[in-house]
Amino acid sequence: MFGNSSPVFVDVGFGNGDSTWQMAQNHPEENFLGVEVHRPGVGHLLMKLQEHGLENVRIACADAVEFFSGRVADASLAGVRIYFPDPWPKKRHNKRRLVQSGFVDVLAKKIRGGGVLHLATDWTPYAEHMLAVLAANEAFTNLSADGPYSPRPQWRPLTRYEQRGQRLGHTVHDLVFQRNES
What is the 8-class DSSP label of residue 157? Predict the structure, then answer.
C-alpha cells in the first residue's frame, strides 16, 4: 500500500485529520493510515496532505470495525491510535462505544507483537470503561509506569476535541498498551 517497509500506524476516527497530518509530517519514517466515516473530515485531511506534500498517509472512508475485520492483515500494524472517540455518555447508548471487548480482540490480531494501542479521551467514565476492557484482554500490557493512565506523549498533537474538553475542565486520559509477543 505504501511501497515501503516502514511501520504502519492506523489513526481511527481522525475527525478533520489535523493530528494525522501533523504526526505524518513529524514522522516521515512512519506510514499512517487514517480511518474515518465523516466525509468532510476526509476531504479536509486530503487538502492538508496536498498542502504539505505528505506522501506517507493513506485514507479509508469506512467504518473502523468493518475495516479492521475485513481489510487489515493479521500482525501487520505497528500501532493503532484512537483519540477522543464519541463517548456515548448516556447509559443506554454505551453499547455504541467503539472501544468494546470484541473490537479490542480484533485489534489484538491486527497489531504485531510489541506494537502499541494508544487511546485518549476526556470523558472519565469512558476512560474507566476503556481501561477495564484493555485490562481484561490478555493480549495487551499497560505501559503506564505510574497508575492506570499515561501522560500525553509529546509527539501526540492536541486534537480539537481535547482542547474543547480542557476548556470545559475535563481531565484527559491517555491509555497506552503494548501488544504482547505471541
Answer: P
pLDDT band (50, 70, 90) for residue 135? very high
Place of cell 487514517: 34
Nearest 5°: CA angle at 72, between 70 and 73? 110
Residue 24 CA to residue 95 CA, distance in Å, equals 32
**Nearest residue to 2 via CA among 23, 33, 35:** 33
What is the residue whose three cell numbers read 490480531?
109
The radius of gyration computed from the CA coordinates of the chain, to the nearest angstrom, equals 16
Task: Spot the catalytic one: 11, 86, 105, 146.
Answer: 86
Known active-site residue 74: no
pLDDT digits (tens, 9 = 90+) for 31-61: 999 999 999 999 999 999 999 999 999 999 9
Q: Residue 174's Cα: distance from chain center in Å?
A: 11
C-beta atoms surrounding 170 within 10 Å: 15
Which residues share a beta bridge with 122? none
